[in-house]
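S., here's the first fold you wanted:
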Amino acid sequence: MKASKQVSLRRIAALVAGLSMFGPFAIDAVFPAFPQIGAQMGADKLAMQQVISVYLLTYALMSLVHGALSDALGRKRVIIGGLVVFILASIGCALSRDMGSLLLFRGLQGLSAGVGYIIGRAVIRDLYDGDDAQRLMSQVSMIFSIAPAIAPIIGGWLLGWSHWQGIFWFLVAFSTLLLVVTCLWLPETHPPQARLSLRPARLAQDYWSIAVNPRFLRLALAGSLGFGGLFLYIASAPAFILDLLHLNEQQFAWLFIPTIGGMALGAYASGRAAGRIAGARAVRIGYAFMAVAAVYNIAYNALAPQMSVPWAVLALTLNSFGVALIFPILSLAILDMYPRQRGTASSMQAFSTLVTNAVIAGVLSPLLSRSGLSLAIGAALFALGSGLMWKWERISQRAQRNTPAA
């Protein structure tokens, strides 16, 4: 029975992680093609950055809807609909011949890309709780972390074999495969009797009650700011690799392999810690790694006469390990706050992360990616903000426990 349960855990983890991958994969796969697209369409670096920020903005806006739709219509139906829209939008990107058309279809990609990531977490919590839920969330995080790391590498390879349009045709093929597998293998985990109404008044009330909940805000900001330090480097990948490290389009692995290695190890450690180490202690360990990474990164960039690999990317491994260690615990804490509205709660958490990422990609990355030290300081401030949110949460929980019942 135990062996069968473990097989089921791995199967669900692999399926949900695959669904979670296509959204972030589509963000990063296009990075190596920036020079080629810009040259063909007459777009400068700032204009090319909007290929990312438009995607993230529409991703963030629609993320508020995906979870509520899944609470009302079922998880599987909404995921299938999102995949169909993503496939059509990816075809539109591949066929675009001007910047306006490309940005339009990138926006449509963003509208649909969040279904797997957002609803997948609700699927996990529908099926499992306690230590099993943390193990499964950690396995998903470990597989999910592969997407932003391998995307630019695959994008660079595709550029070597074809033009930039090949990246979007690859996304069409990948999301079509996911659609087939979802139709065949994904169970419906949210039965009709548990579904909620789509009445606008009730939805607005649900959104508002979550948005103004101080505990939700602390946990959501702890997660979004923690990941924000990593995403600053991900969004700045073209400038970091091509301009600061003076590498070429086929060497994006120098940024993403250290990141994926740290995230995979951190997610694995989080899963192994479930049932062995208290969640609060695991989070403290994660923040310790993030603090060491921040101090090293600032010191290296301030003192090194010239940035070079592997030393320039060592901090990313330490930081991503810490982020991956804490993120499953923060996500489960949020989902457990709203057992009947897990999809909506997952949407609100994703919205917090995606708005943060959109600001990073559209505003902070162009400003900070001009020097390694600026990126290091920015990443450190994100880690500090995340740690302060978690500290606030712990103080609030202790105060609540020590308050006598009325």
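And the second, which I think is the more interesting of the pair:
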Amino acid sequence: MTSQPSVAIVGRQNVGKSTLLNRLTGRRQAITEDLPGTTRDRLYIPMNHAGRDFELVDTGGMEPLPQDTIARSVNDQVRSAMKAASVVVFLVDAKAGLTPQDHEIADEVRKSGKPVVLAVNKADNARLSLHAAEFHSLGFGEPMPVSAFHGRGVEDLLDRVVELLPEPEAVAKAAPGLRIAIAGRANVGKSSLLNALVGAERMIVSPIPGTTRDSIDTPIDTASGSVVLIDTAGIRRRGKIERGVEEYSVIRSLNAIDRADIVLIVLDASEPATAQDTHIAGYARDQGRGLILVVNKTDLLENVDMTEYDRNMAARFKFIPYAERLYVSARTGDGVDRVIPTSFEIQSERAKRIPTPDLNSLVRQALARHAPPSAGGKLLKVLYATQVGVCPPEIVFFVNDPKLVHFSFERFLENRLREVFGFAGTPIKFTFKSRGE
């Protein structure tokens, strides 16, 4: 996979790393909340400043003495980000002043061996800017006072970062790929699935529900083609959504579905599919996305009749009978190798276009087999049909009176269309118009 130079923003918790990233990118990419530990995974955002392309990497807050598994994982993620970075922005807090934690994190930053820009955040006025001087003792040269909240000093900070980037000819630009969103309820194994697909511990994995909060983009190259995997925070029932960080995470998850081509609805094989699972799938269907039901944790199933299990799964998701169903175990890797090829197959179906003569021939044959609906002695007549769009496929039927179209007749047409032309894994949009429209 080709990559751009990256700039990792590191520091202890709650110094404003995500706020700085949002200020530098000019839009709200990272979740910001006045709570320590809001950011956990690495968040990669493409940037351009002064004609230079690079990636900004937001990281979780480092803890010199981590007390739990997640904190240790966050530290590992930060170290990985610094190892891969071309430049490190070490962020500290002017209001809090120099702390023992800053000194300990400075030692970690020094071990990376990368060029470092020391930025003193929350220097919201001239008085606080003077506090930057005390950070000289960290040994990274002249501290740069900035205010991520107000935007003070951020242009100078970007100028300094660009000066330290490697020469552009040494970096190749990555091509866009098939966008695949990994969605589902909390704790069904979305991040574990991403790790299995990528083949590296890119995301933090924990049995604690809600570990992933942002939507994270991971570009990879596969035998099928280039892919951008979008891992999302788990979506809970509306009544279970807490305000603040989790509320923002749900919005990000829905946004991730909005910008995906294919959505993997990840389910827990050891639990029955829930109403929330169907709601997520319904949202993806309404957005016209390709759909794969990925039943994860199949290694937990023992003495289960998989034929009957699959029949029950089909009944639970009967509103999307065209959706592909894959049974996998992210933990063992079983079945994971089918996810990416199936996604590309579905994308090909989404882009399929039916020649107008073939489409109208099918409609005539369908009408010969199934009498069209009527009302008040008036019979529905289908005058002409044409495909007007792809991804998802969109077909317009010109009829004598759109009010005569019944949903059962529409479903019959769709079933017949799928029998002949496929369209596996993708919804099809039907529009009925009168002759004059």
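Why I say that: Residues 69-84 form the longest helix (16 residues). The chain has a mean pLDDT of 83.

Talk tomorrow,
H.
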